[in-house]
Design brief:
The chain is mainly beta. The protein contains 3 helices and 13 strands.
Length: 171
């Protein structure tokens, strides 16, 4: 049975995915044993990490956050995932991760370090992707968006940002 014949619940079970604090579901699939020095809190980081990441109809938002490492996102299947990015200059970009190249979708997307990002599953039962992070992912390098911070940084984007801030942070 291929992934196109599966539903979200079956993929969660077969890939042993768990709820993620950013939204959706995930499972780490790779973490190098080798580390590299950084000037970040705690110093060294693993050279590379990789995960499966799934958005579903029930958990359709990867809430707004930023990381200190660049992250490459690879579309694996299901429905299109829409990414919204705010770059270091404060400009808003929207990119769709999927396989319909003629419609402008891309099968992989690099999100540079320091960019704010959010992703949504707009239609369908699920969207499955993989992520590779170098230096490897570490929760100390993750900043989940807070309304007060974004209001100061990006007053021009306030109206559209509200939908992508985790409900615990909206008030």
């Amino acid at each position: 049975m291929n992934a196109s014949n599966l539903n979200a619940a079956e993929i969660i079970k077969l890939l042993d995915l768990q709820p993620h604090i950013e939204g959706g579901y995930f499972r780490e699939t790779y973490r190098t044993k080798a580390t590299m020095p950084t000037d970040r809190e705690g110093g060294d980081r693993h050279q590379c990490t990789s995960i499966y990441y799934l958005l579903t109809r029930e958990r359709p938002i990867d809430y707004l956050h930023r990381n200190q490492s660049p992250i490459m996102h690879y579309f694996h299947g299901g429905s299109v995932i829409t990414y919204h990015l705010i770059d270091l200059a404060g400009d808003w970009q929207t990119i769709q991760l999927g396989f319909d190249l003629q419609a402008g979708e891309v099968p992989q997307l690099l999100v540079p370090a320091g960019y704010w990002k959010t992703a949504t599953l707009d239609d369908g039962d699920f969207g499955l992707l993989g992520e590779a992070v170098v230096p490897g992912f570490d929760y100390r390098d993750l900043e989940v968006a807070k309304r007060s911070v974004l209001k100061t940084l990006y007053p021009q984007h306030q109206d559209r940002l509200q939908a992508y801030i985790h409900s615990e942070e909206k008030h």
